[in-house]
Amino acid sequence: MKPKPVLLTLTLLTAASLFALTTVQQASSDENPASSTKLKALLITGGCCHDYPNQKIIIPAGISERTNLDIDWTVIHEGGTTTDTKIPFYENDNWAEGYDVVVHNECFAKIEDIEWADRVLKPHKEGTPAVLLHCAMHCYRVPDDRWFEFCGVTSHRHGPKHPFAVINLKADHPVMANFGESWTTPQGELYYVEKVWDTATPLAHSKSEATGEMNVNVWTNDYGPNNTRVFATTIGHHNETMASPEYLDMLTRGTLWAAGKLNDDTFNEVSASESLKAVPAESKITPPKAPKKKKPAKK
Q1: d(Cα 173, Cα 168) in Å, to the nearest integer?
Q2: Average of per-residue pLDDT across 251-257
Q3: pLDDT at 5
Q4: At what angle do helices 245-258 and 52-64 cross, to 10 degrees?
Q5: Rounded distance, CA 129 to CA 222, Å?
Q6: What residues contact residue 29 under an 8 Å CB cut-off, 6+ apart?
Q7: Residue 149's closest CA among 119, 117, 103?
Q8: In this structure, are residues 79 and 52 in contact, taking their beta carbons and an 8 Å threshold?
Q9: What residues contact residue 5 under an 8 Å CB cut-off, 6+ apart?
Q10: What is the pLDDT of residues 176-214, one digit of tens each?
Q11: Which phi and psi (to 5°) does residue 211 adopt?
Q12: Is pLDDT above 80 for 100?
């Protein structure tokens, strides 16, 4: 099926801090009844160690071209490159109100404030579905396990960067139905998972070159008293991995599943040649690291 064109619109707002609000809308002349179905999605991004300025383009575009739903995206990018910023967006007690699903692609690992973590968790505990990507699993290091309970796994660290084979553990699950037996990432940063919670369902795992152990890296979780749907993956450090059609297929199906919208009518197959045509090529690769400064020679 030929993917629908995706229109990206960027709006910049200035408040107590400067943040980007991106609205991504689908343009389509398709009269399929599924195209009239709306989905309000919120992507929250920012923090340390990742190329969030480009990933906030890749994620909405990749998901929107793979579904017949008309997705109204709001993208909140705050916190710069810090690890401990309490972003202004979460100061609103009703920050998730009106959204059908929230995608967390953020990295604030040094926030240890329980009340702040509860502020982030509150709408999900009340039933708002969530998608958790990569460093979201390492956020909000409060003294207890409340954040890990939400994630569905406990992880405190990651291994060296290297490509790895992602092995499908549950081909009969709707998220993994078209994944195949395995897929090897172009590049990767495998998180060490110390515990898989009883509420989580592992969907895929990969082997660490450093330890030789398998680590779950795609799963779903039933969170809280309302069994809120959570789809999560620790894959996604590098843009070239996130921009891969295989990753975007999985992410789209996971997002639609979390929102209760995944079926044969809502998911579009997109060929590799057509994938992310609306996204500039430079957004799909991770910028090279700055060269390390040479230490002065010892006298």
Answers
A1: 10
A2: 98
A3: 42
A4: 70
A5: 10
A6: none
A7: 117
A8: no
A9: 26, 27, 28, 278
A10: 999 999 999 999 888 899 899 999 999 999 999 889 999
A11: -110, -20
A12: yes
CB 201 within 8 A of CB 168: no
DSSP labels, the chain: -PPPPEEEEEEEEESSSEEEEEEEEE------GGGG-EEEEEEEEEESSS-HHHHHHHHHHHHHTTBSSEEEEEEEE-STT-SS---GGGGSTTTTTT-SEEEEEEE-TT---HHHHHHHHHHHHTT--EEEEGGGGG----SSSHHHHHHSEE--EEEEE---EEEES-TTSGGGTTS-SEEE-SS-EEEE--EE-TTEEEEEEEE-TTT--EEEEEEEEEETTTTEEEEEES--SSHHHHTSHHHHHHHHHHHHHHTT--STTTB----TTTTTTTS-GGGGSPPPPPPPPPPPPP-
Most confident of 74-88, 126-140, 239-253: 239-253
User: Is 257 within 8 Å of 229 (Cβ atoms)?
Assistant: yes
* pLDDT of res. 286: 66
221-229: average pLDDT: 98
Is the pTM of the predicted complex or chain greater than 0.90? Answer: no
pLDDT score for 36: 39
Cα separations (Å) of 45 from 27, 127, 185, 198? 25, 21, 22, 28
- If pLDDT is split at 50, 70 and 90, which confidence band does 132 have? very high
Q: Residue 21 and residue 194: Cα distance in Å, rounded?
A: 36
Q: Which residue has the higher pLDDT, 85 or 40?
A: 40
